[in-house]
Amino acid sequence: MLWLLTTMCLVNGFAKTFCLFEPNKNPEAHMNVSQIITYWEYPSEEYEVVTDDGYILPINRIPHGKNNANSSAPKMVVFCLHGLFATAGAWVSNPPNNSLAFILADAGYDVWLGNSRGSTWAKKHMTLNPDSKEFWDFSYDQMITYDLPATINFILEKTGQKQIYYIGHSQGTLIAIGAFATNPKLAEKIKLNILLAPIYSVKHIKGVGHLGLYISPTTTKLLFGEKEFLPTVVSSKLGEYVCDINLINAGCATMMGSMGGFSPEQLNMSRIDVYVKLNLAGTSVKILIHYGQAIRSGVFEAYDWGSKSLNMQHYNQTTPPVYNVEDMKVPTAIFTGLKDFLSDPEDVAILKPKIPNLIYHKILSKFSHFDFILGLNARREVSEQILTILRKNGGDTQL
User: Fold this and answer.
1) Does 369 qualify as catalytic in the annotation?
2) Contact present, 395 and 192 (Cβ < 8 Å)
3) Are 33 and 88 a contacting pair, CB within 8 Å?
4) Which residues contact 106 (CB under 8 A, 6 or more apart)?
5) Catalytic residue of the set 125, 169, 290, 369
6) pLDDT band at 320 (very low <50, low <70, confident <90, very high)
Protein backbone atom coordinates (compact mmCIF):
# COMPACT_ATOMS: atom_id res chain seq x y z
CA MET A 1 0.00 0.00 0.00
CA LEU A 2 2.81 2.43 0.87
CA TRP A 3 4.42 2.00 -2.56
CA LEU A 4 1.13 2.95 -4.16
CA LEU A 5 0.78 6.06 -2.01
CA THR A 6 4.37 7.02 -2.80
CA THR A 7 3.72 6.67 -6.52
CA MET A 8 0.63 8.83 -6.21
CA CYS A 9 2.75 11.45 -4.46
CA LEU A 10 4.84 11.76 -7.57
CA VAL A 11 2.27 11.64 -10.32
CA ASN A 12 -0.95 13.38 -9.41
CA GLY A 13 -2.39 16.57 -8.05
CA PHE A 14 -3.19 15.05 -4.68
CA ALA A 15 0.50 14.71 -3.84
CA LYS A 16 0.44 16.68 -0.64
CA THR A 17 -2.39 14.66 0.81
CA PHE A 18 -0.96 11.25 0.05
CA CYS A 19 2.65 12.16 0.87
CA LEU A 20 1.57 12.66 4.45
CA PHE A 21 1.47 8.89 4.74
CA GLU A 22 4.93 8.29 3.29
CA PRO A 23 7.49 7.03 5.82
CA ASN A 24 10.65 8.99 6.55
CA LYS A 25 12.58 5.77 6.00
CA ASN A 26 15.44 6.47 8.39
CA PRO A 27 17.10 3.05 8.71
CA GLU A 28 18.56 3.94 12.12
CA ALA A 29 15.05 3.83 13.59
CA HIS A 30 15.29 0.05 13.26
CA MET A 31 18.84 -0.34 14.62
CA ASN A 32 20.55 -0.73 17.97
CA VAL A 33 23.47 1.53 18.93
CA SER A 34 26.22 -0.74 17.59
CA GLN A 35 24.42 -1.06 14.29
CA ILE A 36 24.05 2.72 13.99
CA ILE A 37 27.75 3.26 14.65
CA THR A 38 28.64 0.66 12.02
CA TYR A 39 26.06 2.06 9.60
CA TRP A 40 27.97 5.34 9.57
CA GLU A 41 31.21 3.39 9.00
CA TYR A 42 32.78 4.02 12.39
CA PRO A 43 34.49 1.30 14.45
CA SER A 44 32.11 -0.19 16.99
CA GLU A 45 32.80 -2.20 20.13
CA GLU A 46 30.34 -3.35 22.78
CA TYR A 47 31.00 -4.62 26.29
CA GLU A 48 28.98 -5.61 29.33
CA VAL A 49 29.54 -4.31 32.84
CA VAL A 50 28.19 -6.10 35.90
CA THR A 51 27.31 -3.86 38.83
CA ASP A 52 27.80 -4.87 42.46
CA ASP A 53 24.05 -5.51 42.75
CA GLY A 54 23.99 -7.74 39.67
CA TYR A 55 22.70 -5.57 36.83
CA ILE A 56 24.33 -6.14 33.44
CA LEU A 57 24.87 -2.91 31.55
CA PRO A 58 25.99 -2.70 27.91
CA ILE A 59 28.58 -0.08 26.98
CA ASN A 60 29.16 1.08 23.42
CA ARG A 61 32.57 2.28 22.29
CA ILE A 62 33.84 4.24 19.30
CA PRO A 63 37.60 3.82 19.76
CA HIS A 64 38.55 6.29 17.04
CA GLY A 65 37.19 8.33 14.17
CA LYS A 66 37.32 7.69 10.46
CA ASN A 67 40.62 9.44 9.84
CA ASN A 68 42.67 8.75 12.97
CA ALA A 69 42.74 4.97 13.20
CA ASN A 70 46.51 4.77 12.73
CA SER A 71 47.48 7.18 15.49
CA SER A 72 49.75 5.40 17.98
CA ALA A 73 49.31 8.01 20.72
CA PRO A 74 47.01 7.00 23.59
CA LYS A 75 43.64 8.64 23.11
CA MET A 76 41.95 10.55 25.89
CA VAL A 77 38.75 8.84 27.02
CA VAL A 78 35.36 10.56 27.01
CA PHE A 79 32.40 8.83 28.64
CA CYS A 80 28.86 10.03 27.81
CA LEU A 81 25.75 9.14 29.82
CA HIS A 82 22.18 9.73 28.61
CA GLY A 83 19.14 11.13 30.35
CA LEU A 84 15.88 9.78 31.72
CA PHE A 85 14.04 7.48 29.26
CA ALA A 86 16.95 7.66 26.81
CA THR A 87 19.66 5.20 25.72
CA ALA A 88 23.28 5.38 24.59
CA GLY A 89 21.77 6.04 21.18
CA ALA A 90 21.06 9.61 22.27
CA TRP A 91 24.65 10.48 21.34
CA VAL A 92 24.36 9.05 17.79
CA SER A 93 20.81 10.16 16.97
CA ASN A 94 21.93 12.45 14.15
CA PRO A 95 24.31 11.89 11.22
CA PRO A 96 28.02 12.11 12.11
CA ASN A 97 28.31 15.83 11.37
CA ASN A 98 25.89 16.61 14.22
CA SER A 99 26.18 13.75 16.72
CA LEU A 100 28.51 14.48 19.64
CA ALA A 101 29.86 10.91 19.86
CA PHE A 102 31.02 10.93 16.23
CA ILE A 103 32.37 14.48 16.51
CA LEU A 104 34.45 13.50 19.54
CA ALA A 105 35.76 10.37 17.81
CA ASP A 106 36.78 12.34 14.72
CA ALA A 107 38.54 14.83 17.00
CA GLY A 108 40.74 12.03 18.29
CA TYR A 109 38.97 10.87 21.45
CA ASP A 110 38.18 7.34 22.61
CA VAL A 111 34.41 7.59 23.08
CA TRP A 112 32.34 5.41 25.42
CA LEU A 113 28.54 5.51 25.68
CA GLY A 114 26.78 4.21 28.78
CA ASN A 115 23.35 2.69 29.30
CA SER A 116 21.49 3.10 32.60
CA ARG A 117 19.71 0.08 34.04
CA GLY A 118 16.21 -0.49 32.72
CA SER A 119 16.74 1.29 29.40
CA THR A 120 16.11 -0.47 26.10
CA TRP A 121 19.27 -2.59 25.97
CA ALA A 122 20.00 -2.73 29.71
CA LYS A 123 17.43 -5.24 30.94
CA LYS A 124 19.64 -8.07 32.13
CA HIS A 125 20.57 -9.20 35.63
CA MET A 126 22.69 -11.98 37.04
CA THR A 127 19.75 -13.52 38.92
CA LEU A 128 16.61 -11.37 38.57
CA ASN A 129 14.04 -11.77 35.80
CA PRO A 130 13.26 -8.47 34.02
CA ASP A 131 9.59 -9.40 34.24
CA SER A 132 9.78 -9.41 38.02
CA LYS A 133 8.93 -6.60 40.41
CA GLU A 134 12.31 -7.08 42.08
CA PHE A 135 14.20 -6.23 38.88
CA TRP A 136 12.48 -2.82 38.67
CA ASP A 137 12.97 -1.97 42.34
CA PHE A 138 15.45 0.83 41.69
CA SER A 139 15.57 4.61 41.48
CA TYR A 140 18.42 6.90 40.48
CA ASP A 141 20.04 6.18 43.87
CA GLN A 142 21.19 2.81 42.53
CA MET A 143 22.50 4.39 39.33
CA ILE A 144 24.56 6.75 41.50
CA THR A 145 25.79 4.04 43.87
CA TYR A 146 26.30 1.14 41.48
CA ASP A 147 25.95 1.90 37.76
CA LEU A 148 28.28 4.85 37.34
CA PRO A 149 31.17 3.53 39.49
CA ALA A 150 31.04 0.10 37.82
CA THR A 151 31.02 1.61 34.33
CA ILE A 152 33.81 4.12 34.94
CA ASN A 153 36.02 1.53 36.64
CA PHE A 154 35.50 -0.86 33.72
CA ILE A 155 36.49 1.81 31.20
CA LEU A 156 39.62 2.74 33.16
CA GLU A 157 40.67 -0.88 33.42
CA LYS A 158 40.05 -1.51 29.73
CA THR A 159 41.88 1.59 28.50
CA GLY A 160 44.64 1.77 31.09
CA GLN A 161 43.82 5.43 31.74
CA LYS A 162 43.85 6.98 35.20
CA GLN A 163 41.25 9.63 34.47
CA ILE A 164 38.47 10.20 31.96
CA TYR A 165 36.32 13.09 30.76
CA TYR A 166 32.65 12.83 31.66
CA ILE A 167 29.72 14.25 29.66
CA GLY A 168 26.19 13.84 30.95
CA HIS A 169 22.82 14.97 29.67
CA SER A 170 19.74 15.44 31.87
CA GLN A 171 19.56 12.47 34.28
CA GLY A 172 23.16 11.73 33.32
CA THR A 173 24.04 15.01 35.07
CA LEU A 174 22.01 14.13 38.16
CA ILE A 175 23.79 10.80 38.46
CA ALA A 176 27.17 12.48 38.05
CA ILE A 177 26.48 15.13 40.69
CA GLY A 178 25.26 12.50 43.15
CA ALA A 179 28.14 10.10 42.50
CA PHE A 180 30.97 12.65 42.43
CA ALA A 181 29.64 14.36 45.59
CA THR A 182 29.37 11.16 47.63
CA ASN A 183 32.19 9.04 46.21
CA PRO A 184 35.50 10.96 46.42
CA LYS A 185 37.52 8.03 45.04
CA LEU A 186 35.33 7.99 41.94
CA ALA A 187 35.54 11.77 41.61
CA GLU A 188 39.35 11.54 41.50
CA LYS A 189 39.01 9.53 38.29
CA ILE A 190 37.22 12.38 36.49
CA LYS A 191 39.42 14.97 34.81
CA LEU A 192 36.53 17.19 33.76
CA ASN A 193 32.78 17.01 34.26
CA ILE A 194 30.59 18.48 31.49
CA LEU A 195 26.87 18.77 32.24
CA LEU A 196 24.32 19.41 29.47
CA ALA A 197 20.90 20.56 30.71
CA PRO A 198 21.85 19.77 34.33
CA ILE A 199 19.28 18.34 36.72
CA TYR A 200 19.62 19.07 40.43
CA SER A 201 16.60 20.87 41.82
CA VAL A 202 13.45 20.25 39.78
CA LYS A 203 11.20 22.47 41.87
CA HIS A 204 10.37 24.69 38.89
CA ILE A 205 9.92 21.95 36.29
CA LYS A 206 7.42 22.73 33.52
CA GLY A 207 5.50 20.72 30.93
CA VAL A 208 4.11 17.27 31.59
CA GLY A 209 6.84 16.67 34.19
CA HIS A 210 5.11 19.18 36.43
CA LEU A 211 2.32 16.64 36.93
CA GLY A 212 4.68 14.84 39.32
CA LEU A 213 3.84 17.55 41.84
CA TYR A 214 0.26 16.35 42.09
CA ILE A 215 0.55 12.57 41.79
CA SER A 216 1.32 10.73 45.03
CA PRO A 217 3.49 7.57 45.16
CA THR A 218 0.36 5.51 45.85
CA THR A 219 -1.46 6.95 42.84
CA THR A 220 1.59 6.44 40.64
CA LYS A 221 1.69 2.76 41.57
CA LEU A 222 -2.03 2.39 40.94
CA LEU A 223 -1.70 3.98 37.51
CA PHE A 224 1.49 2.32 36.32
CA GLY A 225 2.17 -0.65 38.61
CA GLU A 226 5.53 -1.22 40.26
CA LYS A 227 7.64 -2.44 37.37
CA GLU A 228 8.52 -0.72 34.11
CA PHE A 229 7.25 2.64 32.95
CA LEU A 230 6.98 3.17 29.18
CA PRO A 231 7.92 -0.37 28.19
CA THR A 232 10.44 -0.64 25.38
CA VAL A 233 7.98 -2.62 23.27
CA VAL A 234 5.83 0.53 23.23
CA SER A 235 8.47 3.24 22.82
CA SER A 236 10.52 1.27 20.31
CA LYS A 237 7.58 0.46 18.05
CA LEU A 238 6.34 4.04 18.37
CA GLY A 239 9.60 5.25 16.88
CA GLU A 240 9.93 2.50 14.28
CA TYR A 241 6.42 2.29 12.90
CA VAL A 242 4.37 5.30 14.03
CA CYS A 243 6.57 8.40 14.27
CA ASP A 244 8.16 7.57 10.92
CA ILE A 245 4.95 8.58 9.12
CA ASN A 246 4.98 12.22 8.04
CA LEU A 247 1.38 12.79 9.06
CA ILE A 248 2.16 11.79 12.66
CA ASN A 249 5.56 13.51 12.92
CA ALA A 250 4.07 16.67 14.36
CA GLY A 251 2.29 14.74 17.10
CA CYS A 252 5.48 12.91 18.07
CA ALA A 253 7.42 16.17 18.05
CA THR A 254 4.76 17.75 20.27
CA MET A 255 5.08 14.83 22.68
CA MET A 256 8.82 15.44 23.00
CA GLY A 257 8.27 19.18 23.31
CA SER A 258 5.74 18.75 26.09
CA MET A 259 8.46 16.97 28.05
CA GLY A 260 11.53 19.06 27.35
CA GLY A 261 10.34 22.39 25.96
CA PHE A 262 9.50 23.78 22.54
CA SER A 263 12.10 25.08 20.10
CA PRO A 264 10.80 24.15 16.61
CA GLU A 265 13.68 25.92 14.87
CA GLN A 266 16.10 23.38 16.38
CA LEU A 267 14.16 20.25 15.46
CA ASN A 268 14.90 18.13 12.39
CA MET A 269 11.39 16.83 11.71
CA SER A 270 12.65 14.24 9.24
CA ARG A 271 14.37 12.35 12.10
CA ILE A 272 11.60 12.23 14.71
CA ASP A 273 11.33 8.46 14.36
CA VAL A 274 15.01 8.05 15.30
CA TYR A 275 14.72 10.50 18.17
CA VAL A 276 11.74 8.69 19.67
CA LYS A 277 13.34 5.26 19.27
CA LEU A 278 16.60 6.26 20.97
CA ASN A 279 15.47 8.92 23.44
CA LEU A 280 12.12 7.68 24.77
CA ALA A 281 12.97 4.30 26.24
CA GLY A 282 11.73 2.66 29.40
CA THR A 283 12.65 3.09 33.04
CA SER A 284 11.27 2.08 36.42
CA VAL A 285 8.07 3.40 37.96
CA LYS A 286 10.11 3.91 41.14
CA ILE A 287 12.22 6.54 39.39
CA LEU A 288 9.06 8.49 38.55
CA ILE A 289 8.11 8.37 42.22
CA HIS A 290 11.58 9.58 43.16
CA TYR A 291 11.35 12.52 40.73
CA GLY A 292 7.90 13.36 42.10
CA GLN A 293 9.45 13.50 45.54
CA ALA A 294 12.17 15.84 44.22
CA ILE A 295 9.59 18.13 42.55
CA ARG A 296 7.59 18.44 45.78
CA SER A 297 10.61 18.96 48.05
CA GLY A 298 12.89 20.90 45.71
CA VAL A 299 15.77 18.92 47.23
CA PHE A 300 18.17 16.42 45.66
CA GLU A 301 17.93 13.61 48.18
CA ALA A 302 17.74 9.83 48.35
CA TYR A 303 14.49 7.94 47.90
CA ASP A 304 11.94 8.52 50.68
CA TRP A 305 10.56 5.20 51.84
CA GLY A 306 7.42 6.85 53.14
CA SER A 307 7.86 6.64 56.88
CA LYS A 308 10.39 7.56 59.54
CA SER A 309 10.80 3.94 60.56
CA LEU A 310 11.49 2.71 57.02
CA ASN A 311 13.92 5.56 56.39
CA MET A 312 15.67 4.69 59.63
CA GLN A 313 15.87 1.09 58.49
CA HIS A 314 17.49 2.04 55.17
CA TYR A 315 19.52 5.14 56.11
CA ASN A 316 19.86 5.05 59.89
CA GLN A 317 18.06 8.38 59.98
CA THR A 318 14.40 9.39 59.78
CA THR A 319 14.72 11.44 56.59
CA PRO A 320 16.43 10.62 53.27
CA PRO A 321 20.06 11.78 53.11
CA VAL A 322 20.72 14.80 50.91
CA TYR A 323 23.20 14.80 48.02
CA ASN A 324 25.35 17.88 48.64
CA VAL A 325 26.61 19.27 45.35
CA GLU A 326 29.03 21.38 47.40
CA ASP A 327 31.00 18.19 47.98
CA MET A 328 31.55 17.69 44.24
CA LYS A 329 35.09 19.00 43.73
CA VAL A 330 35.50 17.93 40.10
CA PRO A 331 36.12 20.79 37.60
CA THR A 332 32.72 21.30 36.00
CA ALA A 333 31.31 23.00 32.91
CA ILE A 334 27.58 23.44 32.34
CA PHE A 335 25.42 24.21 29.30
CA THR A 336 21.86 25.42 29.97
CA GLY A 337 18.91 26.59 27.87
CA LEU A 338 16.31 29.24 28.55
CA LYS A 339 13.54 27.19 26.87
CA ASP A 340 14.29 24.06 28.90
CA PHE A 341 11.28 22.65 30.78
CA LEU A 342 13.26 20.08 32.80
CA SER A 343 16.44 22.01 33.56
CA ASP A 344 14.50 25.19 34.19
CA PRO A 345 16.52 28.42 34.44
CA GLU A 346 15.22 28.99 37.98
CA ASP A 347 16.50 25.56 39.03
CA VAL A 348 19.81 26.22 37.29
CA ALA A 349 20.07 29.39 39.37
CA ILE A 350 19.77 27.23 42.48
CA LEU A 351 22.43 24.78 41.28
CA LYS A 352 25.05 27.12 39.86
CA PRO A 353 26.32 28.81 43.08
CA LYS A 354 26.57 25.42 44.78
CA ILE A 355 29.11 24.02 42.29
CA PRO A 356 32.47 24.65 44.01
CA ASN A 357 34.67 24.23 40.93
CA LEU A 358 32.60 25.69 38.10
CA ILE A 359 34.94 26.61 35.25
CA TYR A 360 32.44 27.41 32.50
CA HIS A 361 28.75 28.16 31.93
CA LYS A 362 27.12 28.72 28.55
CA ILE A 363 23.50 29.86 28.36
CA LEU A 364 21.64 29.16 25.12
CA SER A 365 18.59 31.37 24.86
CA LYS A 366 16.83 29.30 22.17
CA PHE A 367 17.63 25.79 23.41
CA SER A 368 15.16 23.41 25.07
CA HIS A 369 16.05 20.17 26.84
CA PHE A 370 16.78 17.86 23.93
CA ASP A 371 18.50 20.45 21.74
CA PHE A 372 21.89 19.96 23.41
CA ILE A 373 22.21 16.55 21.77
CA LEU A 374 19.61 16.62 18.97
CA GLY A 375 19.31 20.26 17.89
CA LEU A 376 20.14 21.46 14.39
CA ASN A 377 22.61 23.94 15.89
CA ALA A 378 24.01 21.54 18.49
CA ARG A 379 27.33 21.20 16.73
CA ARG A 380 28.02 24.91 16.50
CA GLU A 381 26.62 25.86 19.91
CA VAL A 382 27.59 22.83 22.02
CA SER A 383 29.86 20.24 20.41
CA GLU A 384 32.48 22.66 19.10
CA GLN A 385 32.60 24.42 22.46
CA ILE A 386 33.02 21.07 24.23
CA LEU A 387 36.04 20.35 22.02
CA THR A 388 37.52 23.72 22.96
CA ILE A 389 36.95 23.07 26.67
CA LEU A 390 38.55 19.63 26.43
CA ARG A 391 41.62 21.03 24.68
CA LYS A 392 42.01 23.79 27.27
CA ASN A 393 41.79 21.27 30.10
CA GLY A 394 44.46 18.83 29.04
CA GLY A 395 42.48 17.04 26.38
CA ASP A 396 44.75 17.74 23.44
CA THR A 397 44.72 14.91 20.93
CA GLN A 398 47.23 13.81 18.37
CA LEU A 399 45.49 12.97 15.12
Assistant:
1) yes
2) yes
3) yes
4) 65, 66, 67, 68, 96
5) 369
6) very high
